């Protein structure tokens, strides 16, 4: 099972850019560096870019090939703050540990999503930011390789993150090169602050 997942993820990662996600980059460039968590980090570009700005980045990912690529890219960029450590749902997280937690195209099955989100919120420092960018539910009809129930909607995000002060939450249609992926997409994006 793990091998098949790795192979599928590896083939997908070959199409991703070495540049960070546009939404992710635009946010963190304007924030004082601190500690960051990227659950199911996937392509190395986001983690390595953040580390290059001085962030202390922890990344969790099941894909062995993704971990290898992140370490290789970090080595090329002279970054040493990136740490890949496995499945986020099975890892114990310290409370109020991170200044930023970013779910960038992280798709969890519904039966564990709310549980994982609660863990992540607990691990976010007061005054810290939570970012989400993911395909919206309508994307299931537009060629997404993710099952519809794994995609996101504004109502579900509001329910899971009702303890945070949501500064931005919208659905938008994008096109062209978004850094970590290319092409048209219907995206849900959130920026929230933990009071």
Written overview of the protein:
The chain has 195 residues and is α/β, with parallel strands linked by helices. It contains six helices and seven strands, in the order ααβαβαββαβαββ. Helix 3 packs parallel to helix 4. It is globular. The termini are far apart. The relative contact order is 0.17.
How is the secondary structure organized here?
Layout (H helix, E strand, L loop, with lengths): L1 H12 L8 H7 L6 E5 L4 H9 L3 E5 L3 H14 L5 E2 L13 E7 L5 H14 E12 L18 H7 L4 E10 L10 E9 L2
Helix pairs in contact: 3-4
Summarize this, please?
The protein is α/β, with parallel strands linked by helices and 195 residues long. It has helices at residues 2-13, 22-28, 44-52, 64-77, 110-123, 154-160, and strands spanning 35-39, 56-60, 83-84, 98-104, 124-135, 165-174, 185-193.
Number of domain modules: 1
**Derived structural class:** alpha/beta
Largest sheet: 7 strands, mixed
Give the terminus-to-terminus CA distance: 40 Å
Which CATH class applies here?
Answer: Alpha Beta
Number of helices: 6
What is the share of helical residues? 25-40%
CATH superfamily, called what?
Vaccinia Virus protein VP39
* Proportion in β-strands: 25-35%
Q: Mean pLDDT, as a whole number?
A: 82
Unreliable stretches (pLDDT < 50, length at least 5) are 1-16, 139-145
Radius of gyration: 16 Å
User: Number of DSSP strands?
Assistant: 7
Helix-strand sequence: HHEHEHEEHEHEE
Strands of the widest sheet, in order across it, are 3-2-1-4-5-7-6
Second rung of CATH, namely the architecture: 3-Layer(aba) Sandwich
CATH T-level topology: Rossmann fold
Shape: globular
């Amino acid at each position: 099972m793990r091998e098949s997942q790795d192979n599928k993820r590896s083939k997908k990662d070959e199409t991703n850019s070495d540049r960070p996600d546009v939404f992710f980059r635009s946010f963190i460039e304007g924030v004082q560096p601190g500690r960051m968590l990227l659950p199911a980090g996937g392509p190395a570009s986001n983690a390595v870019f953040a580390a290059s700005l001085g962030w202390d980045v922890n990344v969790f990912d099941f894909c062995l090939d993704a971990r290898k690529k992140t370490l290789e890219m970090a080595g090329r960029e002279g970054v040493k703050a990136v740490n890949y450590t496995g499945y986020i749902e099975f890892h114990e997280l310290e409370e109020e540990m991170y200044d930023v937690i970013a779910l960038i195209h992280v798709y969890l099955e519904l039966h564990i999503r709310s549980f994982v989100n609660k863990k992540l919120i607990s691990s976010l420092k007061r005054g810290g930011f939570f970012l989400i960018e993911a395909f919206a539910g309508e994307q299931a009809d537009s060629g997404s390789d993710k099952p519809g129930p794994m995609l996101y909607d504004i109502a579900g995000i509001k329910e899971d993150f009702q303890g945070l002060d949501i500064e931005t939450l919208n659905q938008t249609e994008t096109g062209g090169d978004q850094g970590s992926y290319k092409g048209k997409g219907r995206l849900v994006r959130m920026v929230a602050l933990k009071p």
